[in-house]
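Hi F.,

I've been meaning to write this up properly since the lab meeting, where we talked about keeping a consistent format for the predictions we share between groups. The idea is simple: the sequence comes first, exactly as it goes in, then the structure tokens exactly as they come out, then a line or two of notes. No screenshots and no reformatting. I'm using this chain as the first example so we have something concrete to point to.
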Amino acid sequence: MSGIVGYIGNRNAVSVIFEGLKTLEYHGYDSVGYAFLNEGSLKLYKKAAEIADLEKEIEQGCHSRVGVGHIRLATHGSPVDSNAHPHCDCTGKFAVVHNGIIENFHELRSQLEKKGHRFSSETDTEVIPHLIEEAYQGDLLSALRKALEQVRGSYALVVISEDQPNQLLAARKNNPVIVGLGEGENFLASGIPAILPFTRDVYFIDDGEVVEVTRDSVRVFDKEGNPVEKEAFHVDWDVSAAERGGYPHFMLKEIHEQPQALRNTMGSRITPAGDDIIISDLKLTPEEIRGIAKIVITACGTSYHAGLVGKHLIEKWAKIPVEVELASEFRYRDPLVCPDTLVIVISQSGETSDTLAALKEARDKGCRILAITNVVGSTITRESDEVIYTWAGQEIAIASTKAYTAQVLVMYLLAMLFARERKTMASEELKGIIATLQQVPGWIEEILEQEEAIKEIAAYYHTCENMFYLGRGLDWAVALEGALKLKETSYIHAEAYAAGELKHGPLALITEEVPVLTLATQEDLLEKTVSNINGVKARQGAVIGVTLGQCELVDKACDHIIRLPAAPSFVSPLLSVVALQLFAYYMS
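Output, unedited:
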């Protein structure tokens, strides 16, 4: 994950770009770089360091009006100064910043080196300015287009040129590019937060498009070079959403925002009487819902885990067969889907490149696409037939929390809606489930009141180097998410297993130094889960149990207990994950 900010106008570009980059640093980065035009010359500063360190190096009194900046998290090449962006061609006239992966860069680099081009980094990005140099005959736009024709992979990139100092060029494929619109100035960025301090009117650039930005104009072209008319989108986010609000980290802030986020997700989707589900975003007719032969849910990471919960709910309540696939796998095979398959894509940002590629694969096969996302106007929303927004609010932390629980809640609502239309759920059962879901935000608030107790448990285990997470049924999906959160936040090796699989190999790894967190919230599976706990204890493993209310059977078997409110087990994924988020946060 990297961040890009570009500016052309009458302000000090250095100040604008560094302010924008600071709004994107929550993605994580190891290097920062900046290119700007100063008295007609292209100047580069880049460093494997923090933004503030580079700011100190830039000459005082530099008042360039055009520039581009980049923060990098290494993919190709180690995090050293030479691999930081921007990258230049041999002449030093063209500089490029880039997010994405150039898949055929070895081949391109070899060809360019044979032509005499000299490279100064290990990165894939560096081939792009050299390709531009090779194609340049006085028209930068034409040279960029010719360069991109040779590239395979994904990119969001911005080009700045000494020869054409009054413009910036940008292009995208599977990585976001946003144009911020101003008066006598314009902005480029990889994420909306970077331009919110300056403008709220934006263009979203689509795959294959190239954009030319000057102080007074924005021109967009498709892959054939034809002009594209864009409709401006007004961003109405609250800028204060990007502030920590007194919390030490965004992750903790967003964990605590979950009760309100879920109230927002339910919002008007539950009737005032609490007796029915209304998803006004959804255009699927009752007949089309009844005609669904199969559902495929595809997503990455945390969103994939939300899909696993959705599979359980939809199959149980709506009686529709559901497959859940990693988007990074789905996109590279020939999936057996057809026009009566509903494909649900889940992405917090709406820009996840593998999920977007999977969406296009399914669409090419004639499937109807339903997107679940948090970001209005994102690429996935524009490519889908249907969109359900989670309304979780802006999520800054890399470790997703409130966006995940909002996605899971949408899966509950969708499963109930499908069940109602397919006549597989009685109205009284529907009302009962709705009444239970309406209590979930309050139950989460009770879990948040246990923060200190969970912190103490984390303090007890924080020196461990390996950890297992176990669960059965719905608990297994949550175990996967809990293990991912621990890895993301603490860099502790953690693996999640369906508890019944423990005896098929993983049990051999249990020692007194490998704690096991076991979710035991599914009432009909408690005895089997406790049997698995006993297997761990027999090998001297320490066990943290997560239960709904008092459960003597589990209490006796575990070393530590995280006790959730005594809620019905079918809503446990919305509750237990909050405790696991807190545990991961304090382990870190």
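Notes:
Residues 244-438 form a domain with the Rossmann fold fold (CATH 3.40.50.10490).
Residues 120 and 299 are 37 Å apart (CA to CA).

If this format works for you, I'll send the rest the same way.

G.
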